[in-house]
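Tutorial sheet, problem 5. The two components below are modelled jointly, 810 residues in total.
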Amino acid sequence: MPEWLSNLLSSVEDFIASLSSNIKLVDKALMGLEGSYVELLTILALGLLAVIPLIVPRKRRQFYRRLNQIFGICIFVFVVFTCLGVFGMIRNLFRGLSEIGRENIVALYYCSVPATIIVTSMIFGPMFCGWICPTGALQEFTGMLTGKWNRRRKREGWRFSRGMLVLVLLVCGVFIAWMAYLSANRVFFVEDASIYWSEVLLIICLLLLWRMKAWDKRLRRLRILSFFIIVAAAIAGMQITSPVHFGFSKVYDPASLLSTVMVGLAALAIPQVWCRYLCPWREAISFASRCSTRKLETDFDKCIECGKCTDVCNVEAVKDGHIDPKECHMCLKCVDICPVDAIELKENWKGKGCGT
Amino acid sequence: MAFASKQCPECRAACVIDDEQPPKIREWHFTRLQKRKFKYGFPVWASPAIAIVEGSPMAFFGGYDNTLHALDLAAKQERWFKVTNGPITAPPAVGSVEDIPVVFFGSSDRSVYAHLAYDGTLLWSRELVEPTPTIGQSIVCAPLVQGDTLYVTCFSYDRSFARNDQRGWLFALKKDTGRLLWKVEVSQGPVSSPTGAYVDGKYTVFVAARKGLLSAIDVSQTEPARLWEFQMPHEVMGSPAVLEGDRPMLFLGSKFGNIIALDARTGERIWKRMAGNWIDNTACIGEIGGEPVVFVGSHDYNVYAFKAIDGEFIWRRHLGGEVFSAPAFFYLEGEPALTVASLDNHTYVLNATDGKVTTSYYTGKPIWDTISKGDVLWGSPAVLQAGRQTAVLTGSYNGHFYVLPVYGKSELRAKVRSASSLWIWLIVVAGVFLLVVLPIVIILGPVKSPEKRS
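Model answer (structure tokens):
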């Protein structure tokens, strides 16, 4: 590598590192339990974010949803010291459960965030995915750039597109070049294994350029594999940091940053690609929300089959009014866009209809 | 007889065995943990001290089990231990009384102890602070042995309504009897371990208060005399590192993230450099190409190397976690080397010339992480430098004290990835995904759609 290029890249990296190292607005936990890492503000913030979807007015609901996502990112990146990474939450839950009875404060700290999310998902459905998750929000925001293009591709049955091939190859090129730079300058650990998830994500993007229609549903099973790998790693004591993890710590984490950028760029080609195929936490939430009290229901007598709900859903959980609760992120875009109010958010506290 | 460096308590540079045939040092994961459900507090937070006692290399370290352990590294056995009434959070110092090696250490029970290094016989013990019914545990830092005197700092507090008081003291004790010579209040808060150097022929002790006030105290007379003070920009946890010579210098990091070089005579700032996050432990001084170099770890995951004289940046090495330890400088087959511990659960050996990782060990993750980073000074590795028998010694939070040979096989040698292995693993992951996982997922067939369910 020429020296000028090396110096330039080093300067860029130094700049990013300096941004990461001073990312928090506070030195210590604002509502920290004395002498511990336990930050009570995390639970409070998460609780608030989880309640907002229940109270916002239907009018301009999508505006409030985006506001909620941005607010969530800001508070977790700039203020509190708890990671909302999808790998970390599974690992933390396991760690917290194993500490109960020995170090209860530590158990509380590790369990607080995942338990809050799981419990709110069990009661109110997978609102976390659609309203709070920073990884999901990142994909949604980057996906807006190619939103129209992807909606057209979806309507056309995800036919092969040369333009998309060029885009995916460009993203792959960025990944390989970045890896080459990091491999020459950094030390890598098991913790940095999120780069393998990024690699698989890019392979999936490439494959689905040709086989999206046939393989989309099948590849969603990879989330189960992803979940079990993270659980096995947690049991084995390996700490694999998630994409977006770098945003929650006060230090520069190059592997996590690379993974985050890759997730964001891959979402240009396939909307919510991480959530669809690789997010282990999505699988856990999907399972937890099977018996939730809030569900989307379609009144097919009202439905005029306009296809707007199919069009608007980023994760293809809705097709002509049929809603797949296993895939639904509860973003409520389909409810808001339906011109005849055929899709409704219904509450059922009697526990009927689990999993449907 | 070689003693661990007295220059800097948290930076116990290599204890050197010059013998052509040094005793064989085997890998050792020493622990006192039993098969109990509840771990009772062996985590070693203090750095070890190393000394050659009766021809045998020994390591001394204390832990949260209130005990000082003395390990015979060649025989691979614990030779003696001493239980105190409080956790031992600072490294001991090894000195000699009438040519007999003695271990001096402080415990949170407000006392300093002196034991014969060979068999642990108690020479003396001294309670530094008068007890009150409501006094809390004290922080007694690493002692400094100089001539016939032992210098030790102690922070004690009493939060009761009637006696509310907190003070950080510097004590001077008679080395052979423990008799108190004098004491001086340094700060109304915690203080770091003392370091010392001859400045213009006078022995001067330097103590940094947690609040950032660095004091230089002339101890060459009967009564201590404060020479100068320097206010650091933020909290200070470590001790100043001293570079002796024609122009003695001090190097001290702070939680503001900067390292400052001071003139040891006047306390004037010579240079300062900034890291990306806290520098909470002590810096370490080594020599590369005849020039003194300052090494320091930071919570921004990096180890930094600066030229000591003018602060010119030489290199930095990014590791996988906060570098909480003080580096220790030593030589590996004549090449300058460095060892540091990081919160990525690894202890590293770096090439001190360019910062490249020579080897690393997985030394375990914390079992106690209820204590916030930055509240206490965590331990640092030390080195027994003995040719091919060179070993890194480090206490870990996981209840083990590790003796790790630098050469040969080590069970804990970490598989930190080289550039080539990184690419190999990327290819392996791609291969496994495309040839195994993907076909299985495809063969399993389509997932039932909601329409079909209904």
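Marking note: Chain B touches chain A through 49 residues (CB under 8 Å). Full credit if you identified this.
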